[in-house]
Amino acid sequence: MIDKKDNNLPKIDTEDSHASEHVKMSRRLFLGSSTAVAGAVGALGAGIGSVFSGSTMADTQNNGAGHHTIGPGELDEYYGFWSGGHQGEVRVLGVPSMRELMRIPVFNIDSATGWGLTNESKEILGDQLYQNGDCHHPHISLTDGRYDGKYLFINDKANTRVARIRLDIMKTDRIVHVPNVQAIHGLRLQKVPHTKYVFCNAEFLIPHPNDGSEFTLENSYTMFNAIDAETMEVAWQVIVDGNLDNMDADYTGKYAASTCYNSEKALDLAGTMRNERDWVVVFNIERIEAAVNAGNFKTIGDSKVPVVDGRKGSELTRYIPVPKNPHGLNTSPDGKYFIANGKLSPTCSIIATDRLDDLFDDKISERDPIIGEPELGLGPLHTTFDGRGNAYTTLFIDSQVVKWNIEDAIKHYQGEDVSYIRQKLDVHYQPGHNHASLTESRDADGKWMVVLSKFSKDRFLPVGPLHPENDQLIDISGDEMKLVHDGPTYAEPHDCILVRRDQIKTKKIWDPQDPFFASARKQAEKDGVELEFDNTVIRDGNKVRVYMTSVAPVFGLNEFKVKQGDEVTVYVSNREMVEDVTHGFCMVNHGVNMEISPQQTSSITFIASKPGVHWYYCSWFCHAMHMEMTGRMIVEKV
Ligand code: RUQ
Ligand code: CUA
Ligand code: CA
Q1: Nearest residue (CA) to ligand 1, atom 2
Q2: Which atom of ligand 1 is least distant from the CA of 432?
Q3: Domain residue extents for the chain
Q4: Is the CB of 551 under 6 A from ligand 2?
Q5: Angstrom distance (rounded) from CA 267 to CA 498
Q6: Tell me, what's the pLDDT at 67?
Q7: Residues, CB-to-ion distance under 5 Å, ligand 3
Q8: In this structure, how many other beta carbons lie within 10 angstroms of the beta carbon of residue 45?
Q9: 510-533 pLDDT per residue, tens
Q10: With a 6 A CB cut-off, is 475 part of the ligand 1 pocket?
């Protein structure tokens, strides 16, 4: 272990040692001939056990080109948007530096910005004000198969929600709770002609209605969901057989496909592994829309969402059998293939999207769209692409990423004697998602790949029993993958998306007319208050509205007076015209804090339950006299 630590030091300008090269080669050979080990995968437990056995070899880090180093003051080429996992947020990183630029609170409560505390954020979070969320899949809206930089969408598995983030201000602006289902997991966007729909899978099977009158798994099912990307209303739902895991959409706008690992409808682990093949279910978007428009749907309970039946035998779906408990599903950037990752099978299944019309017209049989099933290694979870015909698949159990050539894998399946594996690279450790730059668009540029490893084990200074994960940056621009950076991350990013920096256009300061705080503006109008200028207190029964401006380093009000028990709403408008001068408003001992950026209005409501003097202060450093940016709330006893 001690020796290993030395090996982990960055070795930017040195050559690979012969020793580690040797180990790397022998390991590759071992894995190259290990395709008969499928049986060993049998139990998922075997994979977990190997966390600590498969990766204790010498460091196989390639000595990277080093051009991932971005100097102080230099800007990155890519934005990376990371899921924040069960922290419930989204993180913005610069790539290739892997510097964290910003956090965007989504489903979580954020002490710094007041997300979950302010009236503006509560309006977006809605009635379902849960305290937690579980983000997995961040995806950026597209127009004609290219990222358009408008929105980012992300799922909440924990509370069955989908959120939209406006990328011009990098704030969450809409959240929808998906009815009739439990646990939104896989989420992707319609790519063509544009992101009209956000597609998302509900993972778990539930009875309908789920009101305590029925508990059996036989009478439970789950649904595939489409959300209108502009209105953020659920447009329709499709009942399926089995469960749903991950998904992707095609480049015609006609099809979407999801993996199912629980075709068995089992409750126990062994049961979910009973079938040698589960399936990929393909959704025919045109036919589903036609069925909804023709009124061939039902609704469930109070929900008005049209529900169509896509179970086996339906015209709306097709079920393509694939081995075994498949997980990720990824569309190649040329639009030709859906690739389903086998998880308990050492294979990926290549589905030809140009055979789907025939499949739906019953001209071919259910396995005919499969045109390749390469053996890649143990525990394939997700695949990403370089736009040059190569695929990169994470191997969870092997702790590797395998680079393979898609056309050669297809030829091999047709009986040609070609090898399709290009390289296997150790990653540290147990990778889940991987993601190459621009890979979910036509513009996949094959420069960088992030591998999101679930375990960091010995890669960082120890921080107690809870370890960070490890997001590794890999240079894929050359023939060989080169590992160039380790990035510790907190609970649990799952997935990320990389876009070119010119594809995102952000505002430097807020538009004072922004809909984000339209309700505050409306209330001010009703009260005859001008947010830009006025500093005033409006009493409305036991509701008190306090309006104040903020210009560094003063609040418009040094003091305001309320009565014990009043419901107080404080509106602060930041009048700065200069970027980066954010103020905060923190009322001591009231659980009240919020961000107010230039030209923004923020508001927060609380009960003034404690008589006496209560200071408030600016909580975002704004000026040399920032400490002096304070005031007092006087609460009179009643
Ligand atoms: S899933 S580690 Cu939540 Cu994206 Cu595959
Ligand atoms: Cu205003 Cu600090
Ligand atoms: Ca299964």
Answers
A1: 432
A2: 2
A3: 515-636
A4: no
A5: 36
A6: 64
A7: 261, 272, 275, 278, 325
A8: 9
A9: 999 999 999 999 999 999 999 999
A10: no
